[in-house]
Amino acid sequence: MTEPTPPRDWRTPMREALALAQAEDAPYGENPRVGCVIVAGDGTIVGRGFHRGAGTPHAEVVALADAGERARGATAVVTLEPCRHTGRTGPCTRALIHAGVVRVVFAQSDPTEHAGGGAVELSASGVEVEPGVLAEEAERVNEEWTFAVRHGRPFVTYKCAVSLDGRVAGADGGPTAITGPGAREHVHELRARVGAIIVGTGTALVDDPALTVRHPHVQATPLRVVVGSRALPASARVLDGSAPTLLVDERDPLVLLEDLYARGVRHALLEGGPTLAAAFLGRGVVDRVEWHLAPVLLGEGPLALPPLDAALDVDVDRVERFGEDVVITGRIIRPPGQAEAEA
User: Fold this and answer.
1) What residues pair up with 76 in beta bridges, in sequence order?
2) Residue 266 Cα distances to 114, 121, 221, 258, angstroms
3) I want to staple 161 with a disulfide (CB 3.0 to 4.6 A). Which of 71, 120, 226, 292 is the partner?
4) For the chain (length 343 residues), average pLDDT per consecutive 10?
């Protein structure tokens, strides 16, 4: 078998694989988003594929099918280390070996116990393996999934809409439309990327939110999670059957998150009020904040958060404007010496 002459730089085909992983049809969910290209000996791409969700063929299998016989003697460039386990689909390592590829170039190592180790199996079968090509870029594509499988709980994004004076509602504490339509549309795009949306019974009773994804180009039904002991009326919109709903009376956010992880949730969106948000922040299980700031002074009304035990720094990585509203996004910085809550 003739070895293919590798391109001068594997980063170019890897960037195409990364673009495939982020295709509009590549869903967010229990599984990572993965893209793959098959590169012939002359450097041309002869097969392309990406994963379309749990239970569907993995990116490598799709790309191999696209390449057909041209895969023999070629190189597979994939954004995540090929899996070696049999689940709802077969192991990608076996598919690559049987297809006759002679080299596998991948970006991110698989951090899961059941699927990781594919590189070792490929090497043992005589396939050349080159790991770590654009690994950081690949981890960013699956930031939340990677965190979740490493920590055994979903990555948590806390979204809060506030006035300039830090209030989440008016003087009567009732439903208050703080941000405009652009920011609200952005929230629905965010909801489409998560496996669960979490609120407390207070929010469910006062605001009566549907907690669904309302976007013309997105089909997603994240789990609606309502935390608390107060009963909801049968007319509550979270009970309308348009999406699955979980009612839980669990005071420890970490226990709740571990249960959600067992249900397949890898990224959870916290949209609860001040009390629930403070509980998650106090337990150390908020990983990212999205602070929606509206140009209005309410003067009275509940504040976004009650007093915290300690200040939390945020590493801001994005500031965006939606109409008149500003959205600030960043990762929570753990205080020095603080152990991970789930450790």
Assistant:
1) 38, 104
2) 16, 27, 14, 10
3) 292
4) 59 97 88 96 95 88 96 97 78 94 96 80 95 96 95 97 93 83 93 96 93 78 95 96 94 96 97 93 96 95 91 95 96 68 43
* Catalytic machinery residues: 60
Map the chain to HEC letters: CCCCCCCCCCHHHHHHHHHHHCCCCCCCCCCCCCEEEEECCCCCEEEEEECCCCCCCCHHHHHHHHHHHHHCCCEEEEEECCCCCCCCCCCHHHHHHHHCCCEEEEEECCCCCCCCCHHHHHHHCCCEEECCCCHHHHHHHCHHHHHHHHHCCCEEEEEEEECCCCECCCCCCCCCCCCCHHHHHHHHHHHCCCCEEEEEHHHHHHHCCCCCCCCCCCCCCCEEEEECCCCCCCCCHHHCCCCCEEEECCCCHHHHHHHHHHCCCCEEEECCCHHHHHHHHHHCCCCEEEEEECCCCCCCCCECCCCCCCCCEEEEEEEEEECCEEEEEEEEECCCCCCCCCC
Alpha-carbon span 143 to 155, nearest angstrom: 9
Q: Which pair of tokens denotes residue 186?
A: 């952005």
The 10 Å Cβ neighbour count of residue 189 is: 13
